[in-house]
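Re: beginner question about structure tokens

> Can someone show what the tokenized structure looks like for a real chain? I only ever see the sequence side.

Sure, here's an example I had lying around. Input first:
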Amino acid sequence: MDAVLKSLMRSAQNESAAAEQRRPSREEAEAAVRTLIAWAGDDPTREGLLDTPKRVVRAYEELYSGYRADSDAILDRTFGEIGNFDDMVLVRDIEFHSHCEHHMVPFIGKAHVAYFPVERVVGLSKIARIVDLFARRLQTQEHLTSQIITAMDEALKPRGVAILIEAEHMCMAMRGVRKQGASTVTTQFTGIFRDDPQEQVRFMSLLRGMRG
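And the corresponding structure tokens:
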């Protein structure tokens, strides 16, 4: 019993410490950029680089804005005037850019998202915003795929969600093996898409058919 209590106390303390972890200030972030510039071999005090730390921090605020957004807030409004519509809704070719969490270099691609609504639908732009929300974080493509489909599934409670993401990773194109043009594809399915292979086929066929 004592061991259990001690374990719970340690867990509570760890959670409290994590909650109190201080976010670095803008000045500290800019100083870190100057350090990286110097480490790379350049002079952070030369004219062309004097304002680079400020620019980088401003860019990071935009590139990683997904940490400050809430998926539930995006998907909380739905519309019920859909008549007797109960078939697939597909939004394809949602362009996105994200950053690999292993090397902090971009990966760029398109997401294709479909769902079967139950009585109510969500605004189409909200699906694109959900993709952007999770893309604007440090990511792996696999985790990005999972986060998008989980947010859709939990917020909308549809009969099923399907997602396919295809992207080129600069960590493969610019460094390491340097294979430009290599594309990575990830898919995930829930509900009717997971349980009925024919619906998976229809989803994939719609994507192929629309490309001619």
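Each token stands for a local structural state, so reading them left to right follows the chain. The CA atoms of residues 107 and 169 lie 4 Å apart.
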